[in-house]
Design goal:
Radius of gyration of chain A: 20 Å
Distance between the termini of chain B: 29 Å
Strand order of the largest sheet of chain A: 3-2-4-5-7-6-13
Number of helices of chain B: 11
CATH class of the largest domain in chain A: Alpha Beta
CATH architecture of the largest domain in chain A: 3-Layer(aba) Sandwich
CATH topology of chain B: Rossmann fold
Helix content of chain A: 40-55%
CATH superfamily of chain B: Thiamin diphosphate (ThDP)-binding fold, Pyr/PP domains
Largest sheet of chain A: 7 strands, mixed
Oligomer: heterodimer
Structural class of chain B: alpha/beta
CATH architecture of chain B: 3-Layer(aba) Sandwich
Helix content of chain B: 25-40%
Largest sheet of chain B: 8 strands, mixed
CATH superfamily of the largest domain in chain A: Thiamin diphosphate (ThDP)-binding fold, Pyr/PP domains
Distance between the termini of chain A: 46 Å
Shape of chain B: globular
Number of strands of chain A: 16
Largest interface: A-B, 43 and 46 residues
Strand order of the largest sheet of chain B: 2-1-3-4-6-5-7-8
Order of helices and strands of chain A: EHEHEHEHHEHEHEEHEHEEHEEHEHEHE
């Protein structure tokens, strides 16, 4: 039987980790991720879980130790944020290349300088080429559910996965979360067989590959990352049968035959939800297209969701300097549509309200905004 | 007399240069540790020595990893083995001096402070040899490298790894070299049978990097010990124990076998003699207590 607990995204992640038969955790504290690892340390100290927690001296070592535990055969979890994620960068590539299904939570936080501890997704989006699966949760319930899905998808395709949550807006905002009791155990206790360090079969992992070997290995890794889309659908089906909650790589909401689509991820999508309701109430046919899984990129799903829409508006809480919003760029580039406008907004936790979103939509529909822009100084 | 195990775990035809002491070190280490060993190898000569894709000359499982991650990856492997009740497997980090003294020092310090149950081995050939002989913080005063070409020699002494790790209060630290194989093996056996963090610092002659004859590696290693350049000792639970009292033969004999020192002036050699005396003055105080 399920029950509801009021939790922030961080609490929800820790709760899911507790239920996920995790063998080893290695982590290093960073705001706003800390309450995840504090909660887990508390579970361990109370004897509620038997997980081994390596309290490393940096995020770099957090990911390196996670790799060690994973190649030795364990299910491994870690969590980080912003500067910590960036410090991991080299090891993120290594974990994916070594095909280690580590699961990590990332509290999306703006990158310094200037110092900021508030929400922004530039940290994880700038890791999009590391070969990790990326989920973006918009609320505590998704954070909780995505963690289980992340383990199952990652282990099936042997590719690591991160579950991203906007700092404070998702990590700390408390809301009711429907949690499992024992009914998730059968789903999450499945651990796929894979190649691990074995003294009976002494192999070397990651040895030098000459060009003729390197490229096929990388193409196979790329195929495995793509495969995560199908696996997500498949595993998502099984998850639905337990939870009655259905997750797809892309979530749509609002008017099916809309004139305007708002594309977004994370906490912005929650705000856009309300904006879509308000716009539809004012007879502007609008829908929300929320990306749950950013890597692998759900191109076909997005194409379907955006096919007959007149105006596509992408909200980015991130920025690629000298280019613009990363999600906008990926959506427009991948689909080849020329009716996509991008709005960079909410950097460093700057507030974005449903009113801001509604105004942008109206300005685009009225022809007042014709090119990529920024949401700034509206308040 | 101690007999050295005749069983070979290291496979023949590995890719080390002729006269490489890093390969011989691995051979001896595995004789002491046995097959229930897994090795973490970062970027270093052993990345090459162990063979390309599909090869594994070490003969035990190897995880090749990023340059600076050895001690952290080994920590993770050990944690996993403990969770799986495979605690009888020895986890060994096997890194060069660059991966230990320089880029991997933070992870090493972290693992030592946590007293992770591993043997961390630094095979020290005193420069970045695999990338073509660039100076590291393990390069001794006066040595020529491609980034310290004479007359701009390295003017700082070698970092003291043993004492640096000793500051972490770990159970076992030792220095060893292939010229004294029984001492070498005894130290690996002791490390294997000690719980917690162990460091073994190996002096590893490198013919291409030291500009020495392939046939002279053992002699150079022996002279490193006998001239006092590389003291053989242990730090067991904080207690310093001298393994071999050097004859303190003149360092010139050691330097003259290696092209990397051929440019040195009499004054610079005198500075090296002086450094050796000072090092032993400090060490002897520790052995006395």
């Amino acid at each position: 039987m399920s029950k509801k607990i009021v939790m922030g995204g961080n609490d929800a992640i820790a709760y899911a980790v507790k239920q996920s038969f995790v063998d080893v955790i290695s982590a290093y504290p960073i705001t706003p991720q800390t309450s995840i690892i504090e909660k887990i340390a508390d579970f361990i100290s109370k004897g509620e879980i038997g997980t081994k927690f390596i309290k490393v001296e940096s995020e770099h070592s957090a990911m390196a130790a996670a790799m060690g535990a994973s190649i030795a055969g364990s299910r491994v979890f870690t969590a980080t944020s912003s500067q910590g994620l960036l410090l991991m960068h080299e090891v993120l590539h290594w974990a994916s290349g070594a095909r280690l299904p580590i699961v990590m939570a990332n509290a999306n936080r703006a990158v310094a300088p200037p110092w900021s501890i508030w929400a922004e997704e530039t940290d994880s989006l700038s890791q999009r080429d590391t070969g990790w699966i990326q989920f973006y949760a918009s609320n505590s319930q998704e954070a909780y559910d995505f963690l289980f899905l992340a383990f199952r998808v990652a282990e099936k395709v042997k590719i690591p996965a991160m579950v991203c949550m906007d700092g404070f807006l998702v990590t700390h905002a408390k809301e009711p979360v429907e949690v499992f009791e024992d009914e998730i155990s059968d789903f999450i206790s499945i651990k796929e067989g894979r190649d691990v360090l074995d003294i009976e079969n002494p192999k070397a992992y990651g040895a030098l590959a000459f060009p003729k070997d390197y490229m096929p290995i990388k193409l196979e890794q790329n195929r495995a990352v793509f495969e995560a889309l199908n696996v997500f659908n498949d595993v998502g089906n099984k998850f639905t049968s337990i939870s009655k909650r259905r997750y797809l790589p892309v979530y749509t909401y609002g008017e099916e035959k809309a004139d305007v689509a708002i594309v977004s991820m994370g906490s912005l999508a929650e705000t856009a939800h309300i904006a879509v309701d308000n716009l539809n109430a004012s007879s502007l046919k609008t829908k929300l297209v929320k990306i749950n899984m950013f890597r692998p990129f759900p191109k076909n799903e997005l194409k379907k969701a955006l096919a007959d829409v007149e105006h596509i508006i992408v909200l980015d809480r991130d920025i690629s300097m000298g280019k613009g919003g990363i999600v906008k760029d990926e959506v427009a580039g991948s689909l080849g549509f020329d009716n996509v406008l991008g709005f960079v907004c909410g950097l460093g936790g700057y507030d974005v309200t449903e009113g801001d979103v509604e105004k942008v939509v109206k300005d685009v529909v009225d022809g007042k905004i014709k090119e990529d822009s920024y949401l700034w100084g509206e308040k | 007399m101690k007999k050295i195990n005749k069983d070979e775990i290291l496979q023949p035809n590995h890719l080390a240069c002729p006269g490489c002491a890093a390969a011989l070190s691995m051979r001896l280490a595995l004789k002491a540790l046995g097959k229930k060993t897994v090795i973490v190898i970062p970027a270093c000569c052993w990345t090459i020595i162990n063979g390309p894709l599909g090869q594994n000359y070490a003969g035990v499982p190897v995880f090749h990893t990023a340059f600076e991650t050895t001690a952290a990856v080994a920590s993770g492997i050990k944690a996993s083995f403990m969770m799986q009740n495979k605690d009888d497997i020895t986890v060994m980090g096997w890194a060069g001096d660059g991966g230990t003294f320089d880029i991997g020092l933070q992870a090493l310090s972290g693992a030592a402070e946590r007293n992770e149950d591993m043997i961390y081995v630094c095979y020290d050939n005193e420069a970045y040899m695999n990338t073509g002989i660039q100076r590291s913080s393990a390069t001794p005063y006066g040595a020529a490298t491609t980034t310290t070409p004479p007359p701009i020699i390295k003017d700082r002494p070698k970092k003291d790894l043993m004492e640096l790790v000793a500051a972490h209060n770990v159970p076992y630290i030792a220095s060893a070299t292939v010229a004294y194989p029984k001492d070498f093996i005894k130290k690996f056996e002791k490390a294997k049978n000690t719980r917690g963090f162990k460091l073994i610092h190996i002096f590893s002659p490198c013919p291409p990097g030291h500009k020495s004859l392939e046939s002279k590696s053992i002699e150079i290693a022996k002279l490193a010990v006998e001239t006092g350049v590389f003291p053989l000792y242990e730090i067991e639970n904080g207690v310093h124990k001298l393994s071999r009292k050097p004859k303190f033969t003149d360092v010139k004999e050691y330097l003259s076998l290696q092209g990397r020192f051929k440019h040195l002036t009499e004054q610079e050699i005198e500075h090296i003699r002086d450094n050796i005396s000072k090092k032993w003055e400090k060490l002897n105080k520790k052995f006395d207590t």
